[in-house]
Design goal:
The protein has 13 helices and 9 strands. By secondary structure, it is an alpha/beta fold. It has 2 domains: 211 residues, 3-Layer(aba) Sandwich (Rossmann fold), CATH 3.40.50; 94 residues, rRNA adenine dimethylase, C-terminal domain (Helicase, Ruva Protein, domain 3, Orthogonal Bundle). The longest helix is centred in the middle third of the chain and has 17 residues.
């Protein structure tokens, strides 16, 4: 009973509705920022429940916008809510919420892609990685245009125990386009299986909680939205550096309809491609005729371990990118000069933006 009274005392006093705040401050969802407002507090409460109990928890909300999800988080009894909002138009409405929840809502005007969350909360909430997760959560109705780069950034943080995961195995509850949510949680053999599936699942337990129909948002997006919960694993399923794993997975999935050895081949320079591909596949003991979507995470682990072993024998392999080799070949043809050997050629080439995660 005392706990119920305490939680009731933390609930927000009567406030203008989110819809009224939108009218009051003349707010519009900006299409170029992929903004879609969720005004139904029953749905925002449902999102918050997927995070588990937030009683006395520390929470970072990503992109609170007009504050619908923010209200649900505050009503769940959090001790401290840090919201990171890039769009200055929403700050006045968030300040109104802050005044209604004194000492419990902090507002940061900034970009979540660059914000140093490892400095956002007290150090004493940290928990050793091997123990239970800290009482810290990340929750957000993410704009579509940042959702994939943001989760990739956070997955790398999980691998390195940095950023929000400097405090321990911080849990995340986030929204994505339904298709992205399905990729994140796709099982082996599924048509939605992708490199995003592998990168998320080798580091976290990933659960597709429920789907929100597009009509629930204002303005209505062309797609439905999935709510996904992430809980970092104590031990990642692949014990190799994140960049190495990402490179192996990215190369294999670039030929998702072909046999997996086709992608493995592109990890190696042309001059030694055949023999090193054969050596890697044999060392990993993976059937080269399997499709990328058919590979299990243990098989990706074997492939990453085999590639890491080859890289210790020839360190230049790790920096090799076949697209850079193609570019240099093209330049050489234009200049009518030999291309030379590409092992050890440094390349900062990033994955093609046309390739979806």
């Amino acid at each position: 009973m005392a706990a119920s009274r305490k939680l009731a005392s933390l609930r927000l006093p009567p406030l203008p509705t989110v819809g009224e705040l939108i009218k009051l401050y003349n707010l519009r969802a900006e299409k170029q920022l992929s903004q879609n407002f969720l005004l139904d507090l029953r749905l925002t409460d449902k999102i918050v429940r997927q995070a588990g109990s937030l009683r006395d928890a520390y929470v970072c909300e990503v992109g609170p916008g007009p504050g619908g999800l923010t209200r649900s988080i505050l009503n769940a009894g959090v001790a401290d809510l840090l919201v990171v909002e890039k769009d200055t138009r929403f700050i006045p409405g968030l300040k109104l919420l802050s005044e209604a929840a004194p000492g419990r809502l902090r507002i940061v005007h900034g970009d979540i892609l660059t914000y140093r969350m490892d400095r956002g909360f007290p150090v004493n909430i940290s928990k050793p990685w091997q123990e239970d997760p800290p009482n810290l959560h990340i929750i957000g109705n993410l704009p579509f245009n940042v959702s994939t780069p943001l989760i990739i950034k956070w997955l790398e943080n999980v691998a390195n125990k940095s950023g929000p995961f400097a405090y321990g195995r911080t849990r995340l509850t986030l929204t994505f386009q339904k298709e992205v949510a399905e990729r994140l949680t796709a099982s082996t053999g599924s048509k939605q299986r992708s490199r995003l599936s592998i990168m998320a699942q080798y580091l976290c337990t990933v659960h597709n909680c429920f789907t929100i129909p597009g009509r629930a948002f204002i303005p209505k997006p062309e797609v439905d939205v999935g709510v996904v919960h992430f809980s970092p694993l104590v031990q990642p399923q692949i014990q190799q550096p994140f960049k190495l794993v990402e490179k192996v997975v990215r190369n294999i999935f670039q030929f998702r309809r072909k046999h997996c050895h086709k992608g493995v081949e592109k990890l190696f320079p042309e001059v030694c491609r055949v023999e090193l591909t054969q050596e890697m596949m044999q060392k990993a003991d993976v059937d080269p005729t399997l499709r990328p979507t058919e590979l299990t995470i243990p098989q990706f682990r074997a492939l990453a371990d085999a590639y890491a072993h080859l890289c210790t024998q020839e360190p230049g392999l790790l920096s090799y990118e076949f697209r850079e080799e193609l570019r240099l070949k093209h330049l050489a043809r234009q200049r009518n000069t030999p291309t030379g050997t590409f092992i050890g050629a440094s390349s900062g080439t990033q994955p093609s933006p046309q390739q979806p995660f």
